[in-house]
Queue: 4 jobs
Job 1
Amino acid sequence: MVQQVTKGIKISVETSFEGTFYKNYKMQYAFGYKVTIENQSKDSVQLHAREWTILDSLNNQETITGEGVIGKKPVLKPGESHTYSSGCLLTSPYGAMYGHYNMINLTTSKKFNVTIPAFKLSAPFALN
């Protein structure tokens, strides 16, 4: 698990390897990740948008942007947390992801970014 705190918002990420399959005649490696967003600040905040960078060991890079997470824009009061699960496909058994969430401090109406720490994606059978 990786964790990082930015401006009182703690991001924790756990990853899992979900398996392999063929798509368009290419081997795909499926990974899952579970993210917990915890508000350790004194103000209520809302997650507005996200931006992810996904890398694999073949130098493929993809950037994903969008509103909310899994169709939600959670509001977190001080001490509250929100956990969600998602996944991605890679064309190699190794990779990494990182990014940020666009948040709004509901007390001050100020927007700010919260770092999603880089985390590794690796298929267990490919490890030395």
Job 2
Amino acid sequence: MAPRRTAQVAITALLLLGCAYVLSPFFAAILFAGTVVITSWPLYARLHAYLRGRDGLAAITMTLLLTALLLVPMIGLAASLTDAVMSLVELIRAAIEASDGRPPAWLKEIPLVGGDIDAYVRKLTRSHDEVRKLGLQAVEPARKFALGLGAMLGQGLLQISLVLFIVFFIYRDGARISAQLETAAARLGGELGRQLLELAGNTVKAVMIGIVGTAAAQALVAFIGFVIAGVPGALLLAAGTFFLSLVPVGPPLLWGGAAFWLYQQGDSGWAIFMVLWGALAVSSVDNFLKPFLISRTASLPILLIALGAFGGVLAFGFIGLFLGPTFLALGQALFAAWTAITPAAHEADSTEGLA
């Protein structure tokens, strides 16, 4: 390779590494913003046409709509959840301070296992003063956990705000970015490159539809259960179920808490109903609806979807929900293209066999 060519390659590589290093703190936000834009692009295209092709106005309008749908409910949910946790901690502290160290009377009334638990706790609590001291010591870590939860929610809100900020510019320059990506894919891989780019977009869209659709279905089913059981704030709890459905083991925190509240109110039957409804109706929606929606939209095997989603989360965090299935889909497409038997190759194989 000529020295000039070598210098060009080295400079290009250093430039790419520098760009990657500068943008590395924002990779997750950029990828998630791209996912949101890809999924909502048909709606943006209609809005863009309605506003007579004004890119900036259409982009800011779409961004404000997403802010109303994502950021505002999350702020209300974060505030309510933090207040609820702090109130629970203070309630536990007051109960411990007023307790004589013996287990509460309602513990023995738990069906099936209440008597055994009560006997075990009484065995452990022979020294009432020591147990009371340990209980008060455990309250402080719980309070710190509640404060940490609030900080985590605040950080999540900041990340969502950053995503919405990036989304505006992707919407505004989306047509140009799309054309550049198509040109780059064609230069790198020809027709196969274009197919892979289209496949990546379809897979991301399918995963988003599967995740959001499943979360909406779980929220609806949970709302019905909350209303039937007479749990107050059913609409707010359903909104919380929608957002917590995006993380593993999220919804049980809400319907389990609702069941505990019902039991504390003396409604043991409704508490049992809430547990059964949550386990059999709410949580089971995720097991069949998400793979069904993704496989129907992206035409991917369910095995690849499951492995891609779980492996992606372990490797990349939340954004891995989208990256994992996309990578596996692209790998499957490349393998299929590499192992495809063209008519010319098939004819050559037949000729060699006859010879």
Job 3
Amino acid sequence: MPECPLCADSATALLYTQQRGPLAQREYYLCPTCALIHVPATFQLDSENEKRIYDLHRNNPNDVHYRQFLKRLFDPMCDRLPIGTCGLDFGSGPGPTLSLMFDEVGRPCTTYDIYYEHKPERLKRTYDFVTCTEVIEHVAAPLHVFHQLLDCLQPGGYLGIMTQRWTSVDRFAGWGYRNDPTHIAFFHESTFQYLATKFALELTIYPRDVVIFRKSQVAIGKERIA
């Protein structure tokens, strides 16, 4: 069985195999330790085909409905962030919007995206907050990415993640979120609780698709963003 890409448990079990459609025969494995459901590498897209799908996204910072969608994370983050705090939007995509929303309310936010804003130097700085909206479900190595996100946070900083969570094994087969070919990692509330325990983080879980972590007050040795 494939090893869990989040906790490295080798006891993952086949949960579901897609029966029909363009993703027929795609397999999904459930980890008994961290409750992550993941798609093995055999069924993942290469970077060229993955980006081809992302290029079809039409996220527009002037789209009122898209902004309203992002407010599910934006509002509870702003409630925690004083004016002047600086952040990073990780995986900002082809139409960065959340970073602009933070800029507009006095919380400067830069961006990073492996395809559209690939500036690794921005991951070598630290920030008061980091956001990751509709990104973590796309990554093949979620533990590595989670380390990256935490490394970018100042002590006491906030990490906000938006991704739909799976709720029950019985409902997984009918869950439309799994049908996106770029979605390969699916988180449960228990998965985020596992991460909070592993990294000694404070965790707040919001309905459906938002969680916010707070990093402990431990010094780290990176350059803070100006």
Job 4
Amino acid sequence: MELGLFTCGYQRYPLEQAFEDAGRFGYDYIELWGGYPHAYVEDLSLTGVREVERLVQKYHIPVKCFTPEHNAYPFNYMTGDAFQWVRSMNYLERAIELTAAMGASKMLFSAGHAGYRMSVQEIDERLQKSLERLVQKAEQQSVTLILEPLTVYESNVITGLNDLERALDKVDSPNLVGMCDLAVPFTTGEPAAEYVRRLGRRFGYLHVIDNDGVSDSHILPGEGNIPLEGILREIRRAGYDGCATIELVTGYLKEPSVYAELAIERIREMLKNE
């Protein structure tokens, strides 16, 4: 597997620190978080992607995936009125354009919480309408959209494999694929490798993280309750050996370098033991 560093955990440091660490710790690529202060979509729209390109060239670490911040902070295409939906679509369409501009082949996004007043039919219709519009832009820009399920603590739209498969069935395009964040199947009681088996060619990405089983927490690998070594082995046996971002987020803001190094050491050791 190619292991990626997620820059969200470096938001209290310059973006260059994340690239420097990715290089010195042996990460294969960067998953660029699109939030303040590093790569917020509206800022990149004004300044361009020159700084990102400079860091890629300086540290020889590619950005393979762009993950714009969304889902209520500040946008959520699954809730609100028509005006809010259009603003969310415009924001994510611009993010797709920026993904292409920085030379990344993938953009990761998810479906936020739809609130408690929408029926299942209303949720399905809004989701399909949103995916159709975003896929059209992705096809124009030659970007692959990675649709991420969220835990039940974060959303009520796509929170498991069946939800993800139905969403992909509604909008059949080679530019839309699914993925698995290991916290999701662990909290819902699903086998993670089944995502790979069921989705086949439509499975395209992995977030590696540990979890306590009763929340949406993203814990340093080896310090939660997920049997990571065995699950990674099953995922590879199922046929996936591609990009896998180690998704350390806000729980490790104080010492991101320390935890980024420790995380990749532990995952590399697990993969080596297979």
